[in-house]
Amino acid sequence: MNELPQQLANGLILGAMYGLIAIGYTMVYGIVQLINFAHGEIFMVGGFGALTVYLALPSGLPLMAALPLMLIGGILVSVLVGVAAERFAYRPLRGAPRLAPLITAIGLSIALQQAVWKWYPDAKKARVFPQFKGDAFDVLGATVQRGDLFVLIAAPLCMLALGYFVSRTRSGRAMQATAQDRDTAALMGINTDRIIVLAFAIGAAFAGVAAVAYGLRTGEVQFRMGFIMGLKAFTAAVLGGIGNIYGAMLGGVVLGVAEALATAYVEDIPGMAQFGGGAWKDVWAFVLLILVLLLRPQGLLGERVADRA
Amino acid sequence: MRHRSLLILTTAVAAGALTLSACGSRGEDKSGDGSKATVVIGLDAPLTGELSALGQGIKNSADLAVKNANKQNEVEGITFELRPLDDKALPNAGQQNATKLAGDKEVLGIVGPLNSGVAQSMQQVAQSNGVTLISPANTTPDLTQGKNWKKNDRKRQFSTYFRTATTDEVQGAFDGQYAYEKMKAKTAYVIDDQKTYGVGLASSFKDQFTELGGKIVGTEHVSPDDRDFKAVVAKAKGANPDLVFYGGEYPASGPLSQQLKDGGVDVPLMGGDGMYSGDYIELNKKAQGDYASSVGKPVEQLASAKKFIADYKDAGYKDAYEAYGGSTYDATWAIVQAVKQVVQDNNGKLPDDARKKVVDAMNKVSFDGVTGKVSFDKYGDTTNTMITAYQVDNKKWAARFSAEFKKFDKS
User: Which value does ipTM take for this structure?
Assistant: First the structure.
């Protein structure tokens, strides 16, 4: 059996999830040049937000009906935490040396993880997330789970909406202006504080969508899930060219596909048998990152500075 | 303004950090009864984190043993006290806990840990302090018999280390034999999580399965933190096995099993005692038909365990006793029995070199425990090699087959 279509589908689904989270890294970096290392945790709380909504709904409700509400719940929690983080953790440090907000971000990440661990009921172990019942679909020789359709639909929709917002709306253009030169933008009458909050909020909302997709796919949410996913998404953002929103999504997909293909095929290369398989997939993902950065230090789509937002 | 919000933030973070560290410390409530000496039994297990379902079961079962010892006045003139510490399944946390416990003279024995990887970091600490360390769950042969056990060059590693769980060598071989002879599987796909326990279990499964005539059609390694196994699933599907064997624990194997079946690999997943947990079924909507082996007979089937189950229920613990409840009770009870022997030999008083005497007594301990006969061989391993295969049936683990596995000559 040819497993290539299946591995490509796996990579695409995983990559779309990375991409959604990577948007949050890239937007915040584009505007305030801050790597928000707490973004993985903003993703994680979104998962718990969606789960809370699901648990609060009457238990007989089909998942299809509950999903929109869960999505709203997840996005809401992520956005609230993201905006609060900006307001209370990062804004007081604006103008401080670069390292200060970076360390704050790491501290915030630990604090959020531990807060969920301590106060969310039963979160000391993985909590079960609802999943769609029913058989998988066969698409071009690949098996695609019902839950995975969610991210395959949501990710392109989110990208289209974001693209429209950034290039066509007043706020979006204000965001581009702020990214290019914050001081000048402020002189032109743009409320840059509001734009920065907006960037955090949009990134957090996308992380909330990704969290629901993660829950549907793996059937669980847990307090540590933001760490690995956040790290991968950050890698995706760098791979695609940090600061570029399309780069983030592209980087995510490339990373996801690279991981899937490395798991499947590296061991078939003569002499590489011991470097193949699931154990080495992260290594190959980072080898790819290093190669891209060596050949194109600005990332895959890094040069389109005008687009960055 | 800027200073104030910073101040508020710092206060909030500091308060949060303090609350968190507060759960690690505990009140030193020593009973003020002067006529009785206190013996502290330390406990080290993952009380939080993904493996906490197993860890809480271990803590509660040890707690029950200590309470029963005090209630029946098992050792005249001695009050036992349990001091549970959380290792979060991390080797360095286990090492710190062992150091902390060994530093207290009242600690005469430590029950734990759950993970073989953690045990490796605790053994040396226990050894140099001469304090008994007894695990209800460690199954890696190296811990007792050294790295060369495969070449039958077995040597006791630590004179203070014991365990009531039988080794992977025995368990993995049991799994291999069960898969080939009882499940009639001819081909198997083997996956492990690269941890000490998982790799050991998977390799002894492989040895036994191929020795009997089975064929390994593929092997894979995953990371224990992964929850997305779709790429591995697609490979397993291509190999078309009769059975997938997983060396590892339930937080990863639950999603793995579900993704295998979602991905069209419609064969049972089999694993060891690290998979034998109620949470495995909860995390896995397609667990039906999967297998796990676990050490000992099912506690529910043993007459000696009836009392344990009833007591556990009466005590009203929030978490189930899980896979290691019985073996933990036995491990704790073994320390109690060793202390009893030592006190009896010393005219009803604790001797000055109590730790050393307890270790000596541990080697000679022999009693009928929850899981059967409890005694230790010359490596510190349990002499009880009873193993049971369980299968998920209707959202519950149902016992399928129990046998004493005696293929390997350990002399």
Answer: 0.76
